[in-house]
Design a protein that fits this description.
By secondary structure, the protein is α/β, with parallel strands linked by helices. It has seven helices and seven strands. It has a seven-stranded mixed beta sheet with strand order 4-3-2-1-5-6-7. The two termini are 28 Å apart.
Length: 161
Amino acid sequence: MTGRARLFGDNINTDYIISSRRKRDSLDPQVLRGYLFEEIAPGFAESVEAGDILVAGQNFGCGSAMEVAVTALLGAGIRAVLARGFSRTYYRNAVNNGLLPVVCDTRGIREGDRLVVEPAEVRNVSTGEALAAESIPAIMQDILNAGGLVPYMRQHGDFAP
């Protein structure tokens, strides 16, 4: 996966990603993408491009457990989030919906850097730096490869032994 880094800091909660009031109007990811980060980064939604990669600090996705904070990113064409840490609920919601959560040291990544995300590392093409990424358990990787938990269950009917 290759994309442009879009930077955020620590403690980005789910209401910063997409305000909970927006899900009253629609749950359509194509509608919600227009409101991404509207409270903390006005203009982000207009500037995001399919393939962009979110890069954050500690505790990404803290706050409520609303899955729409994952699906709105997917609706915008974002397929991965790199962070130094995720809330456990957000991490699992990401996997279950097909959004790749990558735990790595993001401190050296700058806005607009070109990144290549691979299973064990993230390469910053702009700086030449390689960052070790935490491994993802095999079952979670299988779920991500299927496109999320629902497609995985449709394919397998159950969890493989």
